[in-house]
Automatic annotation (TrEMBL):
Coiled coil: none annotated. Belongs to the myoviridae tail sheath protein family. This is Tail sheath protein subtilisin-like domain-containing protein. It comes from the Bacteria. Residues 191-343 form the Tail sheath protein subtilisin-like domain.
Length: 461
């Protein structure tokens, strides 16, 4: 019968002995993919707030049918799991209103020209009435309130407190007549670049892989670039996606892409044809790129990754133009030999690396691996701050934690075996500070296959 032994104990009698111990819990942080952020304009929905969504239908329900909600749908189709949405505000926005007699004054919950209609009707009997909130001919909400003479208006106002679309002034008395009427006078805010910037910074506390916006305006895209540069300095590593005006000349698009010259910016240079045979707007191409980058794990590449709901590429480019696009940091759609529409390359806009950058930053896949490594390592190290002593034992804990992550990412086929996490010999630790050096080689995807055919004209028998 097996018996327990203590560590270091040598038993006398032949038998089976056992002990158990804690191997040590794995506190390493896993990769988080599929998270997108979107700053957009809309005719409905909360302004100046970040909302998280996991379904395209919920985005449309919250903000109505607009360019931004179509972009969100495309992102989900390309694999996004969560999208943080910010509706940009501005000046001049008004809420629609409805006045019915002297005792019914309703106001839309949000600014915008969203089509809302309200209908009130009697129910069988004399004790209750119904109120319907109707959007584009579809009943979205149904309420029942007491038909109690002078108390009807107050009853309806109380009932509508739970509405997602309208509010009603309280303190009114009197009956509520039957009616069916649209709210009018609503207008969308006039959104400027400042409104987008406010959205970028409102999203900063959230973790996401990729951020984009619903415009091809060069000024806004430049503001997005500035924001990305700023947050990278404070330890966030999002990739920003911008897109070209597809009516611009091809050389202009190349110049714009190369002008970003940033490993954290991806630039979509053309569009695709949707199943209805129409060329999709450039922002939809950007949305598909944003969704694909976020959803694709860093041990895989978006190169030759087919997109959804595309049947063709409206512009026909030569092989030389596709090569020029890559060298300019611009991604294009192309058509595979079996008719799929896919990303022809997976480059960032970095075309002229500085002295601290290598060519790996020119690839989205490799940039995403490096972003992931830095983020995961930052989270792990942050947990150790103030929790371990700045002595040999504490340093050992840090080294073990760092090497644990490197080994994890090697097993995940994101970096090569042999990565190291060591004390920086050139910077000795002080009483409360220690310096470390991380050396890792990320793994690129196989993107070029060269076939050498050797044929022979053998004589027949």
């Amino acid at each position: 019968m097996a018996q327990i032994f203590r560590e270091g104990e040598i038993k006398v009698r032949p038998d089976v002995y056992y002990r158990y111990s804690n191997k040590g819990k794995n506190d390493n942080v896993g990769a988080v993919d599929g998270i997108n952020a979107l700053v957009m304009q809309a005719a409905w929905g909360p302004i100046g707030e970040v909302k998280a969504f996991v379904k395209a239908t919920d985005v449309k329900e919250a903000y109505g049918d607009c360019d931004g909600t179509k972009m969100a749908e495309a992102m989900f189709e390309e694999g996004a799991s969560t999208i943080y949405v910010y509706r940009a505000g501005g000046t001049g926005g008004t809420k629609a209103k409805l006045t019915q007699g002297e005792n019914v004054v309703m106001t839309a919950k949000y600014e915008g020209d969203f089509p809302i209609k309200v209908k009130v009707q009697k129910m069988p009997g004399d004790e209750v009435k119904q109120c319907f909130v109707i959007i584009d001919g579809v009943v979205k909400e149904t309420f029942v309130f007491d038909a109690v003479g002078d108390g009807e208006a107050a009853s309806l106002a109380d009932t509508l407190q739970s509405s997602a679309y309208v509010t009603m002034e309280g303190g009114k008395t009197g009956e509520v007549a039957e009616f069916e009427q649209a709210l009018t006078g609503g207008s969308n805010p006039s959104v400027t670049g400042d409104g987008y910037v406010e959205g970028f910074y409102a999203l900063e506390p959230y973790y996401y892989n990729v951020i984009c916006c619903d415009t091809i305006a060069e000024g806004v895209q430049n503001l997005l670039h500035e924001y990305i540069d700023e947050v990278v300095k404070v330890g966030k590593f999002p990739i920003g996606v911008a897109c070209a005006d597809t009516t611009a000349a091809f050389n202009e698009r190349k110049t714009k892409a190369a002008g970003f010259n940033d490993e954290q910016i991806a630039f979509m240079g053309n569009s695709y044809t949707d199943p209805d045979g129409k060329a999709a707007p450039p922002i939809m191409a950007a949305a598909r790129l944003a969704g694909a980058i976020a959803a694709t794990p860093s041990n895989k590449s978006i190169v030759h990754r087919a997109i959804k709901n595309a049947i063709d590429v409206p512009e026909k480019f030569t092989n030389a133009q596709y090569e020029e696009a890559i060298l300019s940091g611009m991604i294009l759609f192309s058509k595979s030999s079996d008719g799929q529409i896919w990303f022809d390359s997976g480059v960032t806009t970095l075309v002229a690396p500085d002295e601290n950058q290598d060519a790996g930053w020119k690839k989205l896949k490799r940039t995403k691996v490096r972003n992931e490594l830095m983020h995961r390592l930052d989270v792990i190290m942050e947990r150790l701050i103030g929790k371990v002593n700045c002595d040999d034992n504490g340093i050992a804990d840090v080294l073990q934690a760092g090497m644990g992550l490197l080994k994890d990412m090697a097993r995940e086929k994101k970096i090569l075996d042999g990565a190291t996490f060591t004390l920086d010999a050139e910077n000795p630790k002080t009483s409360d500070s220690a310096w470390f050096v991380v050396e890792a080689d990320d793994i690129d995807s196989l993107e070029k296959i060269y076939l050498h055919y050797r044929f022979s004209n053998m004589p027949t028998a």
